[in-house]
Amino acid sequence: MRFPLLSKLAALLLVIVLLLFGLSMIEGVVRDRQYYRSETERSVVQSLAGSQTLVGPIIHSSCVESWDVVSGSGKDRTVREQRREFMLTALPENLKVRTGAVMEERARGLHKVNAYTLKAHVTAEWPGLAQLQPQRSMKDSRMQCGAPILMMGVGDARGIRTAQMELDGKSVALKPGTFHPIYTRGLHASLPDAIRSDKETVNVSLDLELVGTQNVSFVPIASNNDVQMQSGWPHPSFAGRFLPSERDVSDEGFTANWRVSSLATTAQQDIRLGRRVCSAGADSEDYANGRVYEAAAAAAAVATAASSVEEVATIQTQPAPGCADSFSVSFVDPVNPYSLSDRAIKYGVLFIALTFVAVGLFELMKKLRVHPVQYLLVGAALCSFFLLLVSLSEHLSFGLSYAMASSACVLLLGYYASHILGGLKMGIPFGLGIALLYGMLYVLLQLEQTALVVGAIALFVVLGVIMILTRKVNWYELTARNQNNNGNGNGNVKPAGTPVEGASA
User: Are residues 254 and 322 in the same domain?
Assistant: First the structure.
């Protein structure tokens, strides 16, 4: 062969392409398993309950104001009735929420989903219910208002297990639904109409047991909001418009406390306007739209007051643009085997490259001849590690699965290298080097914030070691000698697999 080195490089390039194709197929398997896991989560949500959002307690009352409009005179005189429908909403002055979340694992087949049982003790205080006093917009109009409704909205009413409510120390009967046109899911209690004129402080106490999945959110509807949450889950993710003012996260769980004033949030205005509750990933556009709508609503109110009496206001039954401020806690599972396996596969190309560099150095410096097929088999063993890791982690813990898969690959590659590199003296260091790579990868997978910097430093160290070990190598002379040996059949070059003393059979 005229250019053996170029032919060898072309063959190795083809081997690398085949191995990259194999890695992409394994990555596709991981994506499929992630999709099945997501389907399992959706299935559990459909059968159990989804994310929960606590909105309330709120006292509201639907009212209708009607009046007669006379037009014409004499025989042409006509009387038409006009009406205005509106809702009065009384939000608490002080709101205190004390919650505890207990995690419960739910499984469908091989996949597991974290659900939680939330026990909440909610206390709310109104200094008076003057907000429930209807105000006439027309002289001599007729006013009719429904009974005041004390409601507590939740994200998914299927998750309600038990609920008990007290009004000024007296138990009240709870019924499903909220009778609110926007926040329809939850529970309510009917209050006597005489409570509107009660100038004394109104106190409400609610004990609620709620089941949900993924996360739980709170809406700071009061003038002063104090929310505290405790759980044995050690991996919380805090999101929304407000982070906890105090939090303590450890291996035994977490405690978080939010203190939010109405001076810092527009939640009260948002609830009165009937906006939906912001999700944990709500973007700035939602809030911008909400602020634009609020300005438009204020302008419309001024225009309505200045317009003729024939203008009619109705209760809004669709959510207004924008969303109401909220904050939430998500119960993140950091040991998701598929996400960790996906991260590991991203290092697959680096594994193959470093291993091929090591084999190539042995080949040139020890005057060996390693066939491209042998490179392919070594690379295939490296790829099989990731497939073993995914399959084992579905049945065992990720740490144990990683130890078993990496040990099997290290033993296989060490045994095979002792033959293709000419003996145990070469095979054992090669196997130890592969074991070191697997150990470094496991450390990187356990890191979250510092994975990039540690990986970059480790790669730099490996490159430095290779450069130091080969600093005195004359590559032109070494390459020419290997080409001459390949061309004239010089017996000084040992083909891979030649038995040597000390190598295992």
Answer: yes
